[in-house]
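Researcher: I'd like a structural prediction for the single chain below. Treat it as a standalone chain; there are no partners to consider.
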Amino acid sequence: MRRFPASKPEAAYNPAVTPEQSAKHRVLGLDVGARRIGVAISDELGITAQGLDTLHRKNKKYDLSCLHRLIRQYNVHEIVVGLPLRMSGDEGAQAEKIHAFADDLRKHFKLPVHLWDERLTSAEANRLLRQTELSIEKRGQAVDRMAAILILQGWMEAQQK
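Model: Treating it as a single chain, here is the predicted structure.
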């Protein structure tokens, strides 16, 4: 079996992968609530979103510490945070809290933070999870992660247009 040297980039052996693609960074998607933060991460090409464990909030220092670990672990370059708008499209009290949270992320991590309309993502997440055979309890635990996936996936698809 022929072995290739580890020092050559992936693109050298796979012409379908350009050097720009192999150097891409991941995007972190967040569905921020008062008690939990649903978390999703993009693949390295920015095509698909996968859910990560939901963060159970304690305080600002703890939350930022957990997010810092994820940012380092996955080489995150951007963050997308779901913005809860009213059905009319207007912002309410929850949206103000998310703006403040996004500002904290920008200041703390020095990364671009994008806000993405999350209207109906929780409802869509619940609808998708009802189609599975998960118990009601397990569906409740998975809804934040699924909402984060939908937020991140929607944002990535909009970037490709």
